[in-house]
Amino acid sequence: MRTPSLSLFAAALALALPAAASTPITLDQAMSHPDWIGTPVETAWFSWDGKQVYYKQKRTGSPIRDTWAVTQGAKPKQVADAELAKIDGADVVYNRDRSRALMLRNGDLFERDLKNGALLQITRGAAKLDAMQFTADERGVHYRIGNDWYLWDRASKVVGPAALPRAAKDPAAGDDDPLREQQLRLSEHLKRQKSDRDALRERMNEQRRSDASLPPGPVYLGDKVSIESSVLSPDGRWLLVVTEPKGVDKGKAGKMPRYVTESGYEEFEDVRTRVGRAMPPAHALKLVDLRTNRVQDLSFDVLPGVDTDPLAELRAAAKKEPLKGKRAVRVIDGADAIEWTANGASVAVMLRSVDNKDRWIATVDLQGAKLKPLHRLTDQAWVNYDNNEFGWLPDNRTLWYLSEESGYSHLYTQDADGGAPRALTSGKWEASDVRWSQDGGMAWVMCNRTNPGDYEVCAVDAKGGVKEVTSLDGVERFRLSPDERKLLVHYSASYTPVQVATVPAKGGAAVKLTDTRSEAYKARSWIEPQYVAVPSSAGGDPVWSKLYRPAQLEPGKKYPVVMFVHGAGYLQNVSRRYPNYFREQMFHNLLVQNGYIVLDMDYRASKGYGAKWRTAIYRQMGHPELVDYIDGVNYMVAQHQGDAKNVGVYGGSYGGFMTFMALLRAPETFKAGAALRPVTDWVTYNHEYTANILNTPDIDPVAYKISSPIEYADKLQGHLLIAHGMIDDNVFYQDSVRMAQRLIELKKDHWELASYPLERHGYVQPEAWYDQYRRIWQLFERTLKPAR
Predict the structure, then answer these.
(1) H-type helices in 370-436, by residue range?
(2) Which tens digits make up the pLDDT trace of 163-197?
(3) How far apart are CA 30 and CA 587, in angstroms?
(4) How large is the angle between the packed helices 178-186 and 188-210, nearest 10 degrees?
(5) C-alpha dihedral over 437, 439, 440, 444, to 10 degrees?
(6) Residues 6+ apart with CB under 8 A from 701
(7) End-to-end CA, the chain
(8) What is the distance between the alpha carbons of residues 414 and 425, in angstroms, rounded to a whole number?
């Protein structure tokens, strides 16, 4: 564990400097296929009795995944194909007393008796089966295929439909077409046919009401909607259905050309729409009483604040019409945002405004068919799309949820009948990935209490008190054992891909079960990054960063500086985990070996630092982050003999965008940069991400203009490399092409565009990785090294 301190900067400097790598890395090896490192542990889980751990691992040089088993003190052993039918699936759902468990394996549903280990297969060959749950009386199991729900009865072993929602008009309802009415009035034959159909239908409905062996009839929701998701109550009485209007305009899709194809001809691929070109449609939430098939809409009008427009001033400034009526609302992530109590008596729903400013949790008055708002989280910028977990405690009356209302994601409980929420965690750290004990007395959460990049598992007592129960520094995720006595922890480190260990649930020493690194990789010595806190000129918290430098600096020497920018914006790279950017980390070793010093920063907008840090970029992307990077350069110059006249910057995706902003908006600081798969104009990016931060181009054009690098292209002075995959369906290749055309028209010099015909956003082929980083290496060598 690392000791927290207010004087983070001083503490960081006091750390022993890492030794230089004794086995220098080559660019070719750093960019080669990552299998040479050793394939990491993927999904891992406990056996039904908790005595073994199973995990998936990719074969070296192959896409095939094998299943392995390991126990404490023994070497991992691959599970033979003949044994696979006997083991459990990775994700399980327990009944109330944990005597039974449901699991999916190869897409089919199984039930395990946890008293004697008996395994029973419920389905075979079912397509897209999900949402498995025990019925409220535990005499059966519900599951969903598409939007249809099925019931397996344990006593009879019969499977049949439980609820069949249909986005279609009820054939019994008829219609108001005058021509149809005329036909029935004028033709006795047609009238008798209709009467017979109606009689047979009503007779079938009567039989269904009295004969439980008959399947239920369809539930007709109308032909003007499409079904997004549905969730069945455990008692089988109620169905909640999320719908949106049918025929919603999805906006004009892009057409992405592919030039290198098997056919030899150009091919085209449909890709997403641009931000603001088609707003996400409002959802409707329908409550179905399956005893009567009555369908009722749950009005969102009762949600607090839904009738106010937080963008009213921006609409007025843009001379747009005021918002009419209530704001549009969507159910977050469809079915994942609907949680029933185990007894089926209560349900809670998580909702979000389409403008991303509000998140609500509401329960449902089932008899009155009304929403009852319980909690509102609002943010003038945007509500986080992470940290939205919630559910019910085993008492069937207490809700738990994560909320950023304090400025950081923390765990709360609240009585569904009202009353004040109770914070179970607090402080300048974030709680996530919540797992509750069977009795609801204890929760385990991911936590970063010591510093933002040091992740552990914390045990949270429902009556109060938080305790870290792991000390692995780089916990990625975890599971509880069936008896809740152990945690199965996925962990990693700077140069250790994900492995697994077990830890007592109450805390104690970890038992490490795997080490899948190759012998060639383990034999190497790497430059361990220093975790440093760079003082911020903006005030407030420092900017946590990873520093790569030689163990000893030569007196009087000034070192060229390379600044790395992670992607995604809301992503954390300055942690003690194995980085997403493991190739880049090896490249940083190569740079240090050859006389550079490197800084990798968790700039404002990065994940893990609270809501204020996350939303600092609202309506001004690239501006606070650039301040952080200039602070980083000043820190490298002042504290590590950095050469202020020779500073380079590089990164991909959001990192490519920031490379542009650095070169174009601070040309006096940054001499060279490599913008990889960069956003150059936010107007061309997707809605879900961009509208959170910049609203939409029609309402907030100024935010888009000041945040888009293409608007600053005339300021280019330094040396620029642009690299982009030509079939990138995330950040379109067109972004780089448009910037290239702009630079051509401006007659700019010292730039180049490297194109990769067969790469998407995340490069796959080692040759493309090598070519891209060869160009970056040559750029820095050519521009940042003083003339010899």
Answers:
(1) none
(2) 999 999 988 776 677 877 777 778 888 788 877 77
(3) 7
(4) 100
(5) -20
(6) 318
(7) 45
(8) 14
The 10s digit of each residue's pLDDT in 570-586 is 999 999 999 999 999 99
Within 10 angstroms of residue 636's Cβ, the number of other Cβ atoms is 25
Q: Which two tokens stand for residue 206?
A: 């009567």
**Sole residue written with tokens 């009689």:** 199
* Strand order from edge to edge, sheet including 65-70: 41-46, 53-58, 65-70, 77-78
The Cα–Cα gap between 217 and 207 comes to: 11
CA distances from 287 to 298, 347, 370 (A): 7, 11, 9
Task: With beta carbons less than 8 A apart as the criterion, state whether 85 and 72 touch.
Answer: no
Beta strands in 32-125, from DSSP E residues, in sequence order? 41-46, 53-58, 65-70, 77-78, 92-94, 100-105, 108-113, 119-121
pLDDT digits (tens, 9 = 90+) for 377-433: 999 999 999 999 999 999 999 999 999 999 999 999 999 987 899 999 999 999 999
Angle, alpha carbons 504-508-510 (nearest 5°): 75
Q: What is the DSSP letter of 137?
A: T
Res 23: pLDDT: 76
- 140 beta partners: 153
**203 CB contacts (<8 Å, ≥6 apart)?**
none
Single-letter amino acid code for the residue at 173: A
3-state class of 222 per DSSP? coil
Give the position of tokens 């994942």: 336
Q: What is the dihedral of CA 436, 438, 441, 446, to 10 degrees?
A: -20
| Angle formed at CA 146 by CA 141 and CA 148, multiple of 5 degrees | 55
Q: What is the pTM of this model?
A: 0.92
Tokens describing residue 613: 């840090």
Question: pLDDT tens digits, residue range 692-718?
Answer: 999 999 999 999 999 999 999 999 999
Give phi and psi for 668, each to the nearest 5: -75, -15
- Measured on CA atoms in the order 710, 712, 716, 720, is the torsion positive or negative? negative
Are 515 and 506 in contact by the 8 Å Cβ rule? The answer is no
Inter-residue contact 450 to 3 (CB < 8 Å): yes
Q: In the predicted model, what is the mean pLDDT of residues 511-518?
A: 97
When computed from its CA atoms, the radius of gyration of the chain, rounded to whole angstroms, is: 29
Cα gap 391→439, rounded to integer Å: 14
The two tokens of residue 85 are: 């039918």
Give dist(CA 255, CA 140) in Å, integer.
48
